[in-house]
Amino acid sequence: MKIASKPFRVGIVGAGPAGATLACLLAKEGVDAVFFDDGKRPDMVVGESLVPRLVNVFRRLGIEDEVAKLGTYKPGVTWIFDENDALELSFTAMRGVLPTYAYNVHRRPFDDLVHQTALDAGARFVPCDVKLEVGLTERGEKVPRLSAATLALVPDWNGKQPDLLVDASGRRRLFAKLLGIKAAIGDRKDVSHFAHYENCTMPVPSGQTVITRLKHGWSWRIPLLHALSIGVVFDKEHAKQYGKTPEEQLEAVIDQNKPLADACPNRKRITPVTTYANYQLISEQGHGDGWVTVGDSFGFVDPMLSPGLCMAMTSAEMLADAILQNRKDDWDRAFKNYLDWFRDMLNAWQELVDMFYGGQIFALQRTGTRMSQMFPGKISMVMQRHFEKNISGMAGGGLTNHPYSRNLLRFMTRFAIYGEEPADYAVV
Question: What InterPro entries is this protein classified in (predicted)?
C-alpha cells in the first residue's frame, strides 16, 4: 500500500479495538501512530459474540490464530422466538461471501491482544488521561487539539499537533462533546445486564450463540472458553418489574423465562453483574479540519446481531485505507467518502435490527417453512438457500449494506409474509 505523502503523524485518542486496529494498520505502513488512553477498562465488556466479517480483519492484522486460542469457534446463531420454535442460522449459508465461522471471545484478553498487535507493528502507546482543548482554524472553525501537557508526553513531536487527530474514545465521544456536535438518537432506550456463569448447559451446536425473545426484551447466551455469558436487554421501565438491583433483575429474568431456566438451573455466577445503557446513536458530524472519528465515537446501532465490535474494527480498516491511499490535501474528500460509507452501514444495520425487533424476520421464516412443506422440491429449496445466503450475509457483516440484499429483504418482509402477524413475534 503506497503512502502518497509521508512521514506524517497521527494521534489516536482511545486504545480500544478501534483505536488499536487503526494504530496497527497505520504503523505497519510507516506512519508515526501514537495512541493515548488512560488504560481504565472494566473487566467485563459487551461485544463478546463476533461476526464472520471480523475474521477478515483478524487475517489482515495477522492474529486469527491467537483469537482462535483465546476464543471459541462460533458456527452460527440461533434465535428462539417462543418456547417451541427457533430459527437456526448456520454461517455455512454465507459461503462465497464471508468466512463460514466466527468466534466468541472474553473481551479483556481479546482487547489486550489487539493492543499488543499494534505495539508489535510499531505504534506507540502513551498511557495518560488525555486532555483536549478547542482550537480554531484560519477560517474560524472549531477543532479538537491535544493540550500542551498531553503533547509533552511525546517529546519528539516538539509540542506540535499531529497531522491528524482521531477520536477512538468509543461511547465517550470526546471530540463531539468538546465541540458540541449533536447526534441522531434511536428509539429504543434499553438497559442490559450480563455476567459469566458456570454449571450451565452449553448451546448446541458447540459455540452457537443463542438469542431468546423474552416476555420483555431479549437475552443472549454466548459460550466462551470457560464460561457462559448470559445477558438480558430490556426497557428500563420493564426492568423494574424484576427487582431493584441489576443482580436481582438478571437472576429473575433467567428464572422466569423457560429457555433460560432450563439451560441454567444449577448455574453459578463467577463475575459481577455488569450494566450498560443501550442507545442507538449516529453523530451529525464525524470529521473536520485535521480530525476524524472511528468506531463508536461516530455511531452505534444496537447489541442485537452484534454489530458494535464489527463496525469498530471495520471502520478502523476503512479509515486506515482512506488515510494511506490519499494525500493529506485530499483527506477531506477521502474522509467524507469514508463517513458516507460508515453512515450507510449503520443505517443498514439499524434497518436489519429493526426487522428482528419488529418480528418481520420470524414471521417470514414461519411463512417460508410452511411454503416449503406445502410445495417441496428443487425450486423451493433453491429459493430458500438464496434467501438464507443473503440474510446470513447481511447478519454476518458482508452484505449488510449491499443494495440487492437489502432490497430483497425489504421486498420479502413486505410482500412474502402470509398467514403470520409480525407483531406476534416482535421484541417489546
Answer: FAD/NAD-bd_sf, Flavin-dep_Halogenase_NPB, Flavin_halogenase
Residue 21's Cβ-side half-sphere holds a number of Cα atoms within 13 Å equal to: 29
DSSP state of 330: G
Three cell numbers written together for 235: 426497557
Question: Using CA atoms, how far apart are residues 361 and 352, in angstroms rounded to an integer?
Answer: 9
Residue type, 343: R
How do strand 124-127 and strand 32-37 relate by DSSP bridges? parallel
CB atoms within 10 A of CB 43: 11
- In the predicted model, is pLDDT for residue 16 greater than 70? yes
Per-residue cell: 109: 484478553
Residues 6+ apart with CB under 8 A from 86: 78, 79, 80
CA pair distance 321, 338, nearest whole angstrom: 9
What's the CA gap between 167 and 164, in Å, rounded? 10
Long-range contacts of 82-87 (CB under 8 A, 24+ apart): 82/213, 82/425, 83/258, 83/259, 85/366, 87/361, 87/362, 87/365
Strand order across the 281-283 sheet:
183-185, 281-283, 299-300
Helix (H, G, I), strand (E, B) or coil at 326: coil
Strand 287-288 to strand 291-293: parallel, antiparallel, or no bridges (unpaired)? Answer: antiparallel
Distance CA 191, CA 292 (A): 29
Average pLDDT of span 107-125: 97
Cα(56)–Cα(52) distance, rounded to whole angstroms?
Answer: 8
Percent of the chain with pLDDT over 90: 79
**Average confidence (pLDDT) over 326-353:** 95
Beta bridge partners of 51: none
Q: Is the dihedral of CA 49, 83, 388, 282 positive or negative?
A: negative
Q: In Å, what is the CA distance from 377 to each residue of 172, 371, 373?
A: 53, 11, 9
For residue 401, what are the CA distances in angstroms to 337, 405, 409?
15, 8, 11
Q: Looking at the predicted structure, is the pLDDT value of residue 236 above 90?
A: no
How many whole angstroms separate alpha carbon 296 and alpha carbon 308? 7
